[in-house]
Amino acid sequence: MSRRLVAVLVAARPTLPDRALRMAMAEDCYETVACLELVEPLLAVAERDPDAGAVDELAWPGTVVLRTEGPVTAANVLRRLAGLRADEATVVAADAPDLPGLLLGKLHRALGSSPVAVLPAAGGGLVALAARCPLADWLEAATLDADDALDRLRGAAPRRTSVSVGPGWHRVRRPEDVDQLDPRLEGWEVTRAALRAAAP
Question: The whole model's pTM is what?
Answer without folding.
Answer: 0.96
